[in-house]
Amino acid sequence: MEKKVYVIGIGPGAYEEMTIRAVRAMEACEVIIGYTVYVDLVKEHFPGKTFLTTPMTQEVRRCEMALEEAGKGRKTAMICSGDAGVYGMAGLMHEIRQETGYEEVEIEVIPGITAATAGAALLGAPLIHDFAVISLSDLLTPWEKIEERLRDAARGDFAICLYNPSSRKRKDYLRKACEILMEWKSPDTVCGYVRQIARDGEEKHLTTLKELTETETDMFTTVFIGNSQTRVIGEAMVTPRGYRYEKKD
Amino acid sequence: MEKKVYVIGIGPGAYEEMTIRAVRAMEACEVIIGYTVYVDLVKEHFPGKTFLTTPMTQEVRRCEMALEEAGKGRKTAMICSGDAGVYGMAGLMHEIRQETGYEEVEIEVIPGITAATAGAALLGAPLIHDFAVISLSDLLTPWEKIEERLRDAARGDFAICLYNPSSRKRKDYLRKACEILMEWKSPDTVCGYVRQIARDGEEKHLTTLKELTETETDMFTTVFIGNSQTRVIGEAMVTPRGYRYEKKD
Asked: Most-buried pick from A21, A67, A104, B150 (CB within 10 A)?
């Protein structure tokens, strides 16, 4: 009996942002498990499945449930928003499988469109060249470590994509982050942010690093900070493919 | 008359790694333009379309062709492998539209699965936490700039994904990059690399930073370098969601 868990990135929200591979895997499963909000986003497209949900903080329990279901021989999908491998559940699933001794259950990770590239597409092309992805959530990472990363990414002139720029209890984190970035980046650096990508109420905004300091965001916002070459073309935020420099390869 | 160019990321190669949105947009187009290799990957799935191709170095010409076709009122798709916004054509399309005065042509970027997340899914979960994406190609970026970025990303303990790790004329670039990373990262850092993601001949390998120094790669390889917490679980490369530290949010 094949025992299998798919860990599936469903993309930013809309059904049509899922890959064909993700849809086919979910259709092949008996059980679909996820955080309540994500299950609600896809439920109508997968009739006849058993849906199991846990609240946001119970990620470990969610992995255990998936392994238990798969262990009984019921093909199971664990769904994540965006990509399962970017601040997602793919890693935890491997960790929990090892800890709970479910080694006989195979794990297959199916990638999805993460907020960095979905948001970039909405804004234009901010991440065309080298970039860093940093979460401002200090739930599992000391804030000092996050500050160091912001500083290193700014020093290296990376374009930067910020996940979790703020929450109700971390209202001033984005401002603190922008102030650190301005130690290395110009206050005029082209920036942008998007909210509710591919969901009702989708928004996009262009701004500057200075203005971003005063911008209120929430947990549905993804923030983009340009590199020194990023500019606004028409209404798009565009980072060029390199520096004005040509070399014969 | 609507004049529109879609800039579409088709993902790593296999048809089923495309999003439903990408497939629908290509089905709605009359003309599909791309680098020869990518057009060949998808051609059979879109019968009845006009396919136009240019060789690898003619990206500017490719954008002009797309704008010319769309300017005639023929709905046009410009396809890129991976995501159009990560070392792709989304930015150049905006630049060329402005330079050629085709402002009446609307540009819509449709995101795709980039090699960073497709490769990560194959290896396990190397990019779960903050990460940096760096190309080792010095065609448009001075090598000194690339070295700086490697150093800054390593100093910040980012997980790192390397695109274009080498080519025929840049055989020793990956070795040079690893040597720079080892100024900050342990030689035992867990690493991995994948070749020909979602295509015939797909391969994945786990290794260490020290061993990576001696590894031969090519332009179809994507390389993953762990952060200080990355470990091997079973046969998977897994970066944990944070550091062993808990904070009440």
From this structure: B150
Provide the 3-class DSSP secondary structure of residue A218: coil
Nearest to A165 by CA among A113, A213, A109, A206: A213
Q: How many angstroms away from the CA of A6 is the closest CA of chain B?
A: 11
**Token code pair at residue A181:** 């970035």
A-B C-beta contacts closer than 8 Å: 273
- Which chain A residues in 4-23 lie under 8 Å from chain B, judged by CB atoms? 9, 11, 14-21, 23
DSSP per-residue string spanning A115-182: HHHHHHHHHEETTSSSEEEEE---SSS-HHHHHHHHHHHHHTT-EEEEES---TT-TTHHHHHHHHHT
**Bridge partners of residue B50, in order along the sequence:** B31
B175/B212 Cα distance (integer angstroms)? 7
Nearest beta carbon to residue B125 from set A24, A94, A240: A94
CB contact under 8 A, B243 and A94: no
Rg over alpha carbons for chain B, rounded to the nearest Å, is 20
Q: Is B202 helix (H, G, I), strand (E, B) or coil?
A: coil
A98 vs B169, B234, B241: nearest CB: B234
- B136 contacts in chain A (CB < 8 Å): none
Burial of A101 (0-12, 13-18, 19+ CB in 10 A): exposed
Per DSSP, the residues of B62-93 read: HHHHHHHHHHTT--EEEEESB-TTSSSSHHHH
* pLDDT one digit per residue (tens) for chain B, 249 residues: 889 999 999 999 889 999 999 999 999 999 999 999 889 989 999 999 999 998 777 899 999 999 999 999 999 999 999 999 999 999 999 999 999 999 999 999 999 999 999 999 999 999 999 999 999 999 899 999 999 999 999 999 999 999 999 877 888 999 999 999 999 999 999 999 999 988 889 999 999 999 999 999 988 999 999 999 999 999 999 999 987 665 544
- The answer to whether A180 contacts chain B (CB < 8 Å) is no
* CB B134, CB B160: distance < 8 Å: yes
Reading the block at residue A205, the tokens are 């905004």
A164 and B CB contact within 8 Å: no
pTM of the model: 0.96
Tokens representing residue B16 in the block? 């089923």
Phi–psi pair at A158, nearest 5 degrees: -70, 145
